[in-house]
């Protein structure tokens, strides 16, 4: 049942940087994308088409999409929470768009300023227009393992929103532990609900490492056969509307674990460490990734 190949989406340029208070230049963002594709990443979440008042760091979305040097075989995705976002994104020719809902009403309000039902109504035309343009739609489901405002989230709540997303035609379901509180059995229970409505190939895990559980949770997903995960180079990231949530699981850490398990990712860990060192240098702090730090220390002798 354990997969032999895992596909990683590096969400560093988007999720990783969206919460940075100091502006990161468009050039540095494009350079990060270039280094990730050089490391062998085949899926990269580049930016988001959201309100610049809400997330100022993503205000250069058009410029970033224009600046990246696309490689054949790499898929570039962007977040589009509504039709305004999709209309802005379409001319930049993303390979995939991401609509993001929440399993909790409170988080939906804080993050996208509407109820879960309203968010689904906003996404429906986005999905329809994206499909008409031949673009795949990934869904992200925030707070699937817990909410910073409501606390516990049940598997029933997860399944309820998964079903709503499925009903409007969302192609892929990303189960997200926004605040990193999930533990392996709970993660499996949430994943199983997504797997009731989506095939294995269209379910992914998105874990934050706030409580140090992310790798265990990925392992728990592998046990179910799940083989798509989001991760963020250098462990960058965190949602601006989930106070205290730390970064995504570091791509370097996931690749190191998968290498040890003999599971192929197609990613060159040394080049990935270079990408992590690069963006950490830009941000003026060491990589959060334990593997990144260990391999850099080993290189330094
Ligand atoms: C969703 C909205 C836009 C609703 O925001 P709203 O205020 O309800 O929107 P509105 O339709 O009432 O419009 C208000 C203003 O926003 C503008 N506007 C409206 N839409 C857009 C757009 N697409 N792009 C640019 N501008 C937009 C619109 O034009 C108008 O401008 P004004 O007339 O006042 O100048 C807002 O709440 C928002 O941008 N939220 C940011 C959400 C976000 O980016 N969160 C972080 C990403 S999600 C995440 O990180 C979690 C994830 C996916 O990684 C998984 C996990 O770990 O959980």
Offer a concise description of the structure:
The protein is of the alpha/beta class. The protein is 43% helix and 15% strand. It has a single domain (7-300), classed as TIM Barrel (Alpha-Beta Barrel).
CATH class: Alpha Beta
Strand content: 5-15%
Structural class: alpha/beta
What is the annotated CATH architecture?
Alpha-Beta Barrel
**Neighbour order of strands in the largest sheet:** 1-2-3-4-5-6-7-8
The total number of structural domains is: 1
**CATH topology type:** TIM Barrel
SS element count, helices? 12
The biggest sheet amounts to: 8 strands, parallel, barrel
Q: Let me know the CATH homologous superfamily.
A: Aldolase class I
How are helices and strands ordered from N to C?
A: EHHEHEHEHHEHEHEHEHHH
Low-pLDDT sequence parts: none
Overall shape: it is globular
Give the integer mean of the pLDDT values: 97
Radius of gyration: 17 Å
Bound molecule types: 3-hydroxy-3-methylglutaryl-coenzyme A
Helix content class: 40-55%
Q: Can you count the beta strands?
A: 8
Ends distance: 39 Å
Protein name: hydroxymethylglutaryl-CoA lyase
Catalytic activity: (3S)-3-hydroxy-3-methylglutaryl-CoA = acetoacetate + acetyl-CoA
Keywords: Lyase, Metal-binding
Family: Belongs to the HMG-CoA lyase family.
